[in-house]
User: Fold this.
Amino acid sequence: MTNTFARLGSIVALLLFIACDKEEAGTVFVDSRLVPYFTSFQKEAVTRGVMIDLTQSKIAGEIMPFEEQTEASAQCVQPAEEGHYIRIEENYWSGLSELKKEFIVFHELGHCVLDRRHLDDQDEAGRCLSMMHSGSTSCKNEYNSDTRNSYLDELFNH
Ligand SMILES: [Zn+2]
Assistant:
């Protein structure tokens, strides 16, 4: 019962989303919790000489509970026709630190906007050389306030 309602809910939401998208040509839905990270992504790109206009690229972003527990908690979805969008599982999002939220959003925008693939290269100490690592155990994630700048350099100027 609950599942059916949840499913109906998401279908209605999707229809609204599509309807909205058609009405307001050129605007896409971005969850207000994601907006600061989208803005900062664009700013960091421009600082590094990469001109990005997320509104122009029609990148949408949503945070919502996922029905399928098996899905990755954050994704860049690239449908064949419509614009790309990122989706993040709501409970997962609430538990993240500010820096981890930035990491997650920037990583997904790396896929969606910069068209980057996963890169699991590491240094001698096993630290990931890119924030585009696959998140598996192949290298150690060292994204912190000290390393942030060099990771962003790598992200935008790969
Ligand atoms: Zn990824």
The domain at 27-115 is CATH 3.30.2010 (Zincin-like). The pocket of zinc ion is lined by residues 107, 111, 118 (CB under 6 Å). Confidence is low (pLDDT under 50) at residues 18-24. The CA atoms of residues 18 and 24 lie 10 Å apart.
